[in-house]
Amino acid sequence: MAAAVVANGASGDSSKAAFAEIYSRLKEEMLEDPAFEFTDESLQWIDRMLDYNVLGGKCNRGISVIDSFKMLKGTDVLNKNETFLACTLGWCIEWLQAYFLVLDDIMDNSQTRRGQPCWFRVPQVGLIAVNDGIILRNHISRILQRHFKGKPYYVDLIDLFNEVEFKTASGQLLDLITTHEGEKDLTKYNLTVHRRIVQYKTAYYSFYLPVACALLLSGENLDNFGDVKNILVEMGTYFQVQDDYLDCYGDPEFIGKIGTDIEDYKCSWLVVQALERADENQKHILFENYGKPDPECVAKVKDLYKELNLEAVFHEYERESYNKLIADIEAHPNKAVQNVLKSFLHKIYKRQK
């Protein structure tokens, strides 16, 4: 799924500490869930599975719930109950992310995730990982039920998580059938397809979901924030375009990974831009070399990107996106909401990793 989103808010360190503390409590509750008679073996399995898959990321989506909630309330300090509820919703997003990634890695036949073998590649796990994904998803419902049932916004929370999960899974389907199914066919790739995949597969759960959780905690009705949803989805799209750009042009030492979008035949923003601008000869080079692991083929694609001046195309896109997002944010009547949206944007604008 998406690359890690950068956490917003100046109070990141205090939020991080509070956030980390709550995980153990939630895990303990899941291990003591009275709905199932756990054996010692199954308890050990779930304990290990949770630590392996829910932990290990930057937790930026989850921490964004706390920081956004603080900004909406106009305070740097939350009381104990508010902190717990915000952290719990943040962890529900991290559980959702873990669920997506466990299954995503199986579908992509990936080797590593967060610097360790994918869960399904761990000895004795294999395709039990599919069931673990289902358990992770069910934990979200159990956590929400335990801590939010009786709150006026409980049903809205359930609806929100269901809606975002459906959008993300549908985006994943579109990505899989466009990029992985049958013969490799670059004619399937265009800006509309790329945008739709990115919007549904990444933007909703990475950008909209944390802020929507904070709005519900603040007692707001999400129906009144359609413009905020649109801005965040647009921001998530811009973030993924940056990611596609950095995959090719970022410094591997700095971004912590070597980009493989060209070899992996990804429906990347760069290849879509190249297809729009290429003449017949250049298209032929793309069709012949894109999606092949041979370093010479990769070099030919990168040379073509240079020829088409895609670095400049990206910087122009980045400038236009930023200006439009700022204008849309400043048009919002609520200053606290503006602050939340600007903090997200300023953390990702012109990022280098």
In summary, what is this structure?
The chain has helices at residues 12-31, 40-53, 60-73, 80-108, 128-148, 154-179, 191-217, 226-249, 252-255, 269-277, 280-289, 295-307, 310-330, 335-348, and strands at residues 112-113, 116-117. With 353 residues, the chain is mostly helical.
CATH topology of the largest domain: Farnesyl Diphosphate Synthase
Question: What's the number of helices?
Answer: 14
What is the overall silhouette? globular
Strand content: under 5%
Cofactor: Mg(2+)
Keywords: Isoprene biosynthesis, Magnesium, Metal-binding, Transferase
Pfam families: polyprenyl_synt
GO molecular function, one term: (2E,6E)-farnesyl diphosphate synthase activity
SSE arrangement:
Layout: H1 12-31, H2 40-53, H3 60-73, H4 80-108, E1 112-113, E2 116-117, H5 128-148, H6 154-179, H7 191-217, H8 226-249, H9 252-255, H10 269-277, H11 280-289, H12 295-307, H13 310-330, H14 335-348
Antiparallel strand pairs: 1-2
Helix pairs in contact: 1-3, 1-4, 3-4, 3-7, 3-14, 4-5, 4-6, 4-7, 6-7, 7-8, 8-13, 8-14, 11-12, 13-14
